[in-house]
Structure formats: C-alpha cells, structure tokens
Amino acid sequence: MATPHGRVRDLPLVPGVTMAKLIVVERDYPALAAQWNTLGPLTEKLGMTTKGITYRPERDVEMLKGLNGTVAAGPMAGRVRLDTDKRACEMVLALSGTTNGRLAVQGFRRLEEQTGQKMAFLAEEHEGTHITFSDVQVQPRSVITSPEWSGSEHGGRRYTAFAVNVEQLKPWHTLTGRQHFFLDHDWMEELGENLPIYRPPLDMHRLFGDAIPGARNRIAGPGADGQTEVSVRYLTPHSKWSIHSEYQDNLFMLSLSRGGPTIWMSIADAGKIGVRDNEWIEAYNRNGVVVARAIVSHRMPEGTVYMYHAKDRTVDVPISETSGLRGGIHNSLTRILLKPSHLIGGYAQAGLGVQLSRPDRESAR
User: Fold this and answer.
1) pLDDT tens digit sequence for 290-349
2) Residues linked to residue 130 through DSSP beta bridges, in sequence order
3) Are 149 and 158 contacting, i.e. CB atoms less than 8 angstroms apart?
4) Widest CA span of the chain, in angstroms?
5) Residue 69's CB: how many other CB atoms inside 10 A?
6) Which of 2, 6, 5 is nearest to 191 (CA)?
7) What is the percent of the chain with per-residue pLDDT over 70, rounded to a whole number?
8) CA 146, CA 358: separation in Å to the nearest integer?
9) To which H or E segment does residue 254 belong?
10) Angle of the 58-68 helix axis to the 101-115 helix axis, nearest 10
11) What global pTM score does this model have?
12) Rg for the chain, CA atoms, rounded
C-alpha cells in the first residue's frame, strides 16, 4: 500500500508502492461510440466487484441479450445493446442485486465464505426475482436485500443502514472488521482529526471577502417594486426523500408537489422581500443562480435558507431574470472546496474496497 500503517514517508515515487499504479488504457476512438452503446466484455471476464464482493453475471448477460438484443455487426458485434435509455435501465436492473435476486444470493454466499456468518437467507426468498423496466412502469417495487448495501429488508422490514453488520455480524469494512473512530494516518494527526471532532463552519466572507459583487448569497423576490432582495446564509442539507425516491411524474406525487424545486425560508425574510408561500424566487451569488419556489415556514430561522439537495428540476422551472438561463441546481451557489484529508490514498482504513476476512466470532460479538 502507498502508506502502510498510515505513515507518510519521504520516499521516491514508485507506482503501486509509494503512489498510485500507472496503467495504460488503450482507446479505439473511431469505435468509441460503438463501445459506449454496448455492454463491454469485461463484465463477464472480470466480474463485477463492489465492497469486496465479486459477482459473476454471465447468466444475466445472456438474459440481457434476449431483452435488449445484440449488435449485428462492427467492432462490438454480439454484445448487448445499450443504445437507448430503456436498454440502459434494463442493464442496471439486471446487474444489481437489489433488483436481481440471483445476484443478491450469489453475493451473500460469497460473503458467507469470507466471513463464516450465515447471510444468504436474507435474499433467498427472492432468488428467482428479476425486476424489469416494465415492472417499475406498472407500479413501485420493493427492492431485494443485497450485499451492495448494509441494510436489510428481509421479511418486509424497512431499510435500516448497517443492520446486516449489527444483526448478522458482517464485519465492518476496516482492517480489523470493527468500527473505527481512531485513524492513525500522519495527515489526520497533523490536522488534529485522529478522532471525530467538532469543526465550526468556515467563515466564507472572511476567507474570500465581500468586496466582490455578489459575494453574499441573496434571495430576490417580487416585492413592491419587483426588485427586492435579502442576504441570507444558504445551506444544502441532505434530502432523504428526494434523491432516493422515484416516480416524481406519477399523478399522485405531482398532486403533492409544489411544481418545481423549493427553497425553505423564514417568515421574516419572506416578509422583507414581499414573498408569499409557493411563489417563485431567485437565489444568487457570484457562483451562480437558482430559481425555485419559496416554502415560507416558521421552522426556518431568520437569515438562513435551506435548499435540500438533488431536488427535481424537470417541472416548470422558469428562466432566471438574473442570468437569462434556467436557474441551476442546489450546488449552483456553492464554492468547491477540497479538504486535505479527503485526498488520502492507498490507506485501507480510509478506503471502501477493504477485503473482508473471517473475524474472531466471540470478540466480534
């Protein structure tokens, strides 16, 4: 590994030892479009690996050939077609354990071999299930418990993260198979983050200044003169029930929708710019513009607005009066900042591909 035991040593760069591997990738650019429109041969040759488990989907690729058809001629002759959105969806549904019970059971059985814990029963009742695109067009479908995720929906329960780790003693994806709160990497030590600690929000105005026009986040509303604004703190919290939900175009869901993306704001801030609940507003700063409907709520503190991330923008988004474009996504106003600790590489405790091994069962309990 690049940094064994988290020690960053001043050594010459050696690919695969003290730095990332350097691998030559050959591209046949005249054939690139044909390649992108098909499922490549490495799917069967190498299998599909996620979270330390390698799935063998040969049977499922053969099934896809019947569903999607194959390319008749050219450099990708005989490969599964992915040249339409529907065919691409069929591929995703066929090669995920959450929608293909055979792969879910296969993954759990491989996990049993590695860990010594019985887990295949979590998906065995759905081993013959394959959810297709036409199935999800008819009605929403419950997914299958799969090693790709840590939750269990066995027996009709609702998804709870890490249920398989806690209840079935699946090792955590660390070198010891246990949860880790202490990270012994040199960079973490230098940053004072060996253990979880509180870090206050960055003072963006002090870092980047207000002298630049539009440096602050502003909300513009109709108001009395059509040009009223208020400066606010703009937050984009995780939205559990939008990015992980589908069927937004279902008539029942549309009847609950406000008809576009939304920004939550306080009654006081809305009053300053003459905005009523569900009216269109624009949020902008020097980074970009967002157009959304206002949710005016007493739950919001004055001076702060929320735009939950990954809100759907396909319904009735008007052109921004500020930019002349269709005001962007939730991240349009945010500044990209890289945290040094996120750049740690070649260090197993901070990676997602740790191979699972059989732990001491008593100590694991």
Assistant:
1) 999 999 999 999 999 999 887 766 667 888 888 888 878 888 888 888 888 887 877 766
2) 100
3) no
4) 71
5) 12
6) 6
7) 85
8) 19
9) helix 251-256
10) 170
11) 0.73
12) 25
Contact 38, 31 (CB under 8 A): no
Q: Which residues pair with 294 in a beta bridge?
A: 263
DSSP string, 187-247: HHHHTT-SS----PPP-HHHHH-S-STT-SEEEEE-TTTS-EEEEEEEE----TTTTT---
Q: Supply 121's token pair.
A: 């029963």
β pairing state of 304-306 and 228-235: parallel
Q: How far apart are CA 273 and CA 299, in angstroms?
A: 18
Cα 350-353-359 angle, rounded to 5 deg: 90
Domains of the chain from N-terminus onward: 37-170 (1.20.1700.20), 204-333 (2.40.40.20)
Counting every residue written for the chain, the total comes to 365
| CB contact burial 39-53 (16+ within 10 A = b; e otherwise) | beeebbeeebebbbb
Could you give the CA distance from residue 198 to residue 84 in angstroms, rounded to a whole number? 47
Mean pLDDT of 174-198: 87
What is the distance in angstroms between the CA of the first residue and the CA of the last residue of the chain? 30
Q: How confident is the model at residue 243 (pLDDT cuts 50, 70, 90)?
A: low
Written as six digits, the tokens of 97 are: 């354990």
User: Which residue has 């660390």 as its token pair?
Assistant: 174
pLDDT, one tens digit per residue, over 27-85 is 888 889 999 999 999 999 999 998 889 999 999 999 999 999 999 998 899 999 999 99
* Residue among 245, 327, 329 nearest 289 (CA): 327
**CA separation for the pair 308, 261 (Å, rounded):** 9
Q: Give the pLDDT confidence of 107-142 residue by residue, as tens digits.
A: 999 999 988 999 999 999 999 999 999 999 898 888
Each as own residue / partner, the long-range contacts of residues 323-328 (CB below 8 Å, 24 or more positions apart, any chain) are 323/284, 323/288, 323/289, 325/289, 326/291, 327/282, 327/283, 327/284, 327/289, 327/290, 327/291, 327/292, 328/288, 328/289, 328/290
Give the C-alpha separation, 180 to 196, whole Å.
Answer: 10
55 three-state secondary structure:
strand
